[in-house]
Write a structure and sequence with these properties.
With about 700 residues, the protein is α+β, with helices and mostly antiparallel strands. It has helices at about 30-40, 45-55, 105, 110-115, 155-165, 175-180, 260-275, 305-310, 325-335, 365-375, 380-400, 420-445, 490-505, 515-540, 550-565, 570-575, 590, 610-625, 635-640, 650-660, 665-675, 685-690; strands at about 140, 150-155, 195, 200-205, 205-210, 225-230, 240-245, 260, 285-290, 295-300, 345-360, 445, 470. The strands form 4 sheets. Strands 2, 6, 7, 8, 9, 10 and 11 form a 7-stranded antiparallel beta sheet that branches. A two-stranded antiparallel ribbon has the order 1-3. A two-stranded antiparallel ribbon has the order 4-5. Helix 13 runs antiparallel to helix 14 (about 515-540) and helix 15 (about 550-565) runs antiparallel to helix 18 (about 610-625). It starts with about 25 loop residues before the first helix and ends in an 18-residue tail after the last helix.
Length: about 700
């Protein structure tokens, strides 16, 4: 199975973005909070603003005019491709006639370690596998810790091709070197640099140091991710390879630096599924498992506790709910059923490594760290230079067109960052972050832990930890027990804006207008975010750009409240809505909603409740009137609304079979299924996966929620 996508790539992001859109009165309190954050007068400003910005009846308050975006899902899709012929980069090296794993070293171009500064204490602390403070420098040279007896259990043929690796180098009997290198044995491919990086943690705009074991922020960074090189692929595109679970680093904070088979399967499948959905993401190259006894103890969920928790239940006729109206009863029942809890047992799991790949892993947290140091009392030229170097490298990796007209080293490694370049970088990054967040809304995904250190400046999904695709619609959906409301599904645009405000504040010293200019750019990106979020719902409803006002009315005042009250499957309701267009114009109310029936969960089920059903009929008829006569609406909706997403119960089946029976067939089947998520596929696949989540999946620890 190949994890490829026919969906178009976004053109390279340039500086010629449309102008800022207006901001409504309803969002001004957020902008004032941003201003206070940037000026340092209120470090807690973003702690309460997401609800004001986003959680008004569970959706974004739309007050800005929607800017023109490309029709259909391409508005959210993929990312630009860097081509060395136009990048500010050294000319591509001559490619091997027959690419192999060893050929990676021939095409290596380690720009991070070439452009940026090493930790000066690296040699004194070799091998750098224990937690310590890293007070300066952009990286620490550290070798990954190899898995014993590694075996490659799945890989992406598409990523092999992009990296210039022959598929024969992965399969038996020739796959030993591949498995060794991508499980941490650096000697398998001589000539590759390996490193880990420091970065800072900010949560909803609040800069943190408490997660650092030293209380200084100098011990936070890549705790179990080790970069094992950058290469130029056969087409000149740059790729950085990173082992998730590559062993301890100076930033491991006392942990073992390992990932286990369960989390590695989730990361591999989710990365490739997101790519196929057309949402920008880091990719997955391979999943390698230890056959030599490498194991780790992890807290997890006791299935017996799920049975105990489900023993007590409430229903619509529960006397304790007698004084509430039916819609409130349903909300109480859903909240009761979805109560979250922390893990209650320790389990032993096999270690594994997923190699994730991206043009860059530059996080807002990287720039946040050096921005803090440059703005700290007593900071000098050295700290400001490290900030400039970090920002320039981020531009080089993510938006190289910004550097094309500047003088300096041919590959962008030398030279200053002008105020104009810093401003252009912020605008480009803000647009990219808005794109990826809106992509998540379109496909029903919640990242779960959207801190600034888990937000890439290039706007792609990363860090597949406590993520989840939504089953029953809930504006406050999140898998992680620690997500809170601020990282919930409908609040992700606010979290993205809070992360961007941290980036803007960090870059303020490089701007001509300083903090005032940074604030103005944040205002602009907020308007862009609002516009793009509004267009998500327009596209999902199959409406034209000229119907923005109608789309807002239909979603805000009809569909979203109905989905919230009706316990409806988010993926299926939009997919099945298109089927309602196939019914005759004079269809009866009794038949109008039948295509939507598969999307409604049985308990509690408002689908056949008369008042609720009448409201659904009213919405569907109003929506059909808006799209009446619009050719290609069904096709457009089916291109925007996937038939399949990677639901957690599917992932549980895959990693349970792998762990208990050494059976990777479910993993392979899901890899194939999610390769073409907009196609219904075979009858067999539809019967197995085109369905609502099983009832147990909505309640079980480790499936409905996790820590």
């Amino acid at each position: 199975a190949q994890c490829t996508s026919s969906r178009p790539h976004r053109s390279r992001r340039g500086m010629n973005h449309p102008g800022a859109v207006g901001v409504s009165v309803t969002t001004r309190p957020v902008l004032f909070a941003v201003a206070r954050t940037l000026r340092g007068r209120d470090s807690r400003a973003f702690a309460s603003t997401p609800a004001r910005l986003l959680q008004s009846r569970g959706h974004l308050i739309v007050g800005a005019r929607a800017r023109r975006l490309a029709a259909g899902p391409s508005m959210f899709l993929s990312r630009f491709t860097k081509n060395s012929a136009t990048d500010v980069d050294a000319p591509p090296r001559e490619m091997d006639a027959a690419p192999s794993v060893l050929g990676l070293a021939d095409r290596a171009d380690h720009s991070w370690t070439r452009h940026l500064n090493p930790d000066p204490d690296t040699d004194a602390n070799a091998p750098n596998r224990k937690s310590r403070q890293v007070k300066s420098g952009h990286y620490v040279r550290v070798d990954p810790t190899p898995l014993r007896q590694p075996e490659t259990v799945i890989y992406s043929p598409d990523m092999l091709k992009r990296l210039g690796i022959d598929e024969a180098d992965v399969k038996a009997p020739n796959g030993e070197r591949f498995a060794r290198f991508f499980s941490g044995d650096k000697s398998a491919v001589p000539g590759m640099d390996t490193w880990a990086t420091p970065y800072a943690l900010s949560i909803m705009g609040q800069r943190q140091v408490s997660n650092c074991p030293f209380g200084t922020g100098n011990g936070y960074g890549d705790g179990r991710a080790v970069s094992v090189g950058e290469v130029l692929g056969p087409d000149g595109e740059r790729w950085e390879m990173q082992l998730k679970g590559g062993g301890p680093t100076p930033f491991c904070r006392g942990a073992d630096g390992r990932a286990v088979l369960r989390s590695s399967i989730r990361e591999f499948l989710a990365s490739e599924a997101m790519h196929a959905l057309g949402v920008d993401t880091t990719r997955a190259l391979s999943l390698v498992v230890s056959r030599g006894g490498d194991v780790a103890r992890r807290p997890w969920y006791d299935p017996g506790a799920d049975k105990d928790a489900s023993a007590e239940s409430i229903s619509m006729d529960d006397p304790r709910l007698a004084r509430y109206p039916d819609d409130v009863k349903r909300q109480i029942i859903r909240q009761f059923a979805s109560q979250k809890r922390d893990p209650d047992v320790m389990i032993v799991e096999t270690c594994a490594i997923t190699t994730r790949v991206a043009p860059s892993f530059t996080r807002i947290g990287h720039i946040d760290l050096f921005g803090r140091r440059a703005q700290r009392a007593g900071a000098g030229t050295a700290q400001m230079n490290e900030l400039r170097e970090m920002v320039r490298h981020a531009i080089f990796r993510e938006f190289p067109e910004i550097l094309e007209s500047s003088a300096g080293d041919a590959d962008g490694g030398d030279g200053d960052v002008t105020p104009e370049q810093a401003a252009a970088f912020l605008v480009s990054s803000g647009f990219a972050i808005a794109d990826v967040v809106c992509g998540w809304l379109r496909v029903g995904f919640c990242q779960g832990n959207f801190n600034a250190d888990n937000c890439l400046v290039g706007g792609r999904t990363m860090d597949y930890g406590p993520f989840g695709w939504m089953d029953a619609y809930d504006p406050l959906f999140a898998k992680w027990t620690g997500s809170g409301e601020h990282f919930a599904f409908m609040n992700q645009p606010g979290a993205g804006l809070a992360n961007f405000a941290v980036l803007a504040a960090s870059c303020a010293p490089l701007l001509k207008g300083g903090e005032d200019e940074a604030q103005a750019i944040v205002q602009r990106i907020q308007g862009e975010m609002e516009s793009k979020v509004a267009d998500v719902w327009r596209v999902k409803l199959g409406l034209r750009e000229s119907q923005r006002a109608a789309a807002a009315e239909l979603f805000d005042h009809k569909l979203e409240p109905l989905m919230r009250e009706s316990n409806v499957d988010y993926t299926l309701v939009f997919r099945q809505l298109a089927e309602c267009l196939k019914l005759p114009h004079d269809v009866s109310d009794a038949d109008l909603l039948e295509p939507l029936a598969p999307a409604f969960y049985d308990s509690p089920n408002a689908f056949y409740d008369s008042p609720n059903r009448a409201e659904w009929c009213d919405f569907v008829r109003a929506w059909r009137d808006e799209v009446d006569g619009t050719a290609g609406t069904i096709e457009a909706m089916n291109e925007a609304n996937p038939a399949y997403v990677l639901r957690e119960w599917m992932l549980v089946e895959a990693y349970t079979a792998a762990k208990e029976n050494d059976d990777f067939s479910v993993l392979e089947e899901l890899f194939e299924l999610t390769r073409t998520p907009y196609e219904l596929g075979s009858d067999e696949m539809q019967e197995k996966y085109y369905r609502r989540a099983p009832d147990r999946a909505l309640k079980a620890g480790g499936t409905a929620f996790m820590s």
